[in-house]
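Q: I have 368 residues here and want to know how they pack in 3D. Can you give me a structure?
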Amino acid sequence: MSVTDAERTDEDAVRPADLKAFTADDLERFVESRGYPAYRGRQLREWLFRHRARSFEEMHTLPKSLRAALRDGAFIRTITATHRARSTDGTIKTLFRLSSGRSIETVLIPDLDENGQPRRMTVCVSSQVGCAMGCVFCATGRMGFQENLTASEIVDQVLDADDLARAEFGRALTNVVFMGMGEPMLNLDAVLGSVGLMTDPSVLGLSPKRITVSTVGLAQRIRDLADVSSGVKLAVSLHAPDDAKRSSIMPVNRRSKTDLRALRDALLYYAAQTGQPVTYEYCMFEGFNDGESDADNLARVTQWVPSKVNLIMYNEVPGTGFKRTDEPTLNRFIARLVDRGVRVTVRRSRGQDIAAACGQLAVEGQSR
């Protein structure tokens, strides 16, 4: 959501402007309010996102007087890559420091063919520092919630991953998934703002269909997402197909506004509004949610709306007590779902040796 100059308060007028938080129209109004033509705003936007400028001094196509005015009344919010870890499977995890001093992690996941050529390049981005959802199997949840990211901080992860993908694999970024640190639906305005930037042809020009937003199942926020018609895909972290089991591992399910019945009603609304299918993310936990009755209950959940199930081979987090389902049990589970007409895919672990896999992202020693 943009804020025009007319809507800014006196306090806002003296506060330095975060230029990356502005829409294209906002930037044009911003430079016009300082006596420069609107096209300078478009040039400024190109420097911010296409050229990834980190200072006004780099923006040599802008008049020196405008650069001086920008230094006096605006700033460029940036994130800084402080460490990269490379997995044996090609996955690259990047640690970023935010302007607040806190840190987040982002994961670039290359999908390579049998000849080692890239078919798809996916980045898993964070939307928050830590997470308030407290899922007992997830390392990020142990951090608690610390900070929401801005739209530009989210997009900067994607731009960095695009540069990295081109440099390391010779292929531009193709997909973005909001499956990193945090619950995206609790920072929905920033998430949608970042989607607007990613899909902007002057920034990355990604199709919304290449962007997936994952949620633990916040019913009202799913409705909100349906109402904005963003075109992104929706994934729901289900992980257990009945209220008793789901509530035992996911505190979000313990409330009537976010239990499975509420989730079902929200997904029915989402499907009606968008016409888009849903993906259920389902971590396989040994002896907990991988039995025949679990498969049957999961099959019933998939009948709510057009959907598919993405089975995730759990990446063990020390201290949680959960272990990964073995292959024979996984195969029986898949067969039972397929017999009941469920579309099933399996996500194998990527980046597990560098703690970059699903549920493993966490920044140790970071204070709240």
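Q: Anything worth noting?
A: The first helix runs from residue 10 to 14. The chain has two domains: 14-75, 80-354.
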